[in-house]
TrEMBL record:
Subcellular localization, as worded in the UniProt entry: Cell membrane
InterPro entries (UniProt xref): UPF0344
Keywords, ordered alphabetically: Cell membrane, Membrane, Transmembrane, Transmembrane helix
Regions that span the bilayer: 6-26, 38-57, 63-81, 93-117
Family note: Belongs to the UPF0344 family.
Protein name: UPF0344 protein IMZ08_14735
Membrane topology summary: Multi-pass membrane protein
Organism: Litchfieldia luteola
Listed HAMAP family: UPF0344 (MF_01536)
């Protein structure tokens, strides 16, 4: 399940950057399709993360913090895309995205389940 979770994150980040790059052009229908596909990957990320969390024998505070940081990342991805499509400023959300992504990746690699890749 770890592979599915990591794969979903990687594909979601790729789709996010594709959707952001499509905002610059006039391809609003294509951008909406990519954005909706990205939302499907948000669900896959949450489901695979929940399965990983349920499979743990004991849940520590660090895992709860990782869950919250991961939800924070998803929230910032969505805020950047929605506000960007409306032509509003997204600078503050980009900063939060970077912080949340660094925290999430750090906790994902630091916690014991992060090394159970095989």
């Amino acid at each position: 399940m770890t592979h599915a979770h990591i794969t979903a994150w990687v594909i979601a980040l790729i789709l996010f950057f594709v959707a952001v790059s499509m905002q610059k052009g006039a391809k609003s229908k294509s951008q909406k399709i990519v954005h909706m596909t990205l939302r499907l990957f948000y669900i896959l990320i949450i489901v695979t993360g929940a399965i990983l969390l349920i499979g743990l024998s004991s849940i520590s505070l660090m895992y709860v913090l990782k869950v919250l940081a991961g939800i924070w990342v998803i929230g910032m991805l969505e805020m950047i895309l929605v506000r960007g499509s409306k032509g509003k400023s997204t600078g503050m959300f980009w900063g939060q995205l970077i912080v949340a992504l660094v925290v999430t990746i750090y906790l994902g690699l630091k916690l014991p389940i992060g090394f159970m890749l095989f």
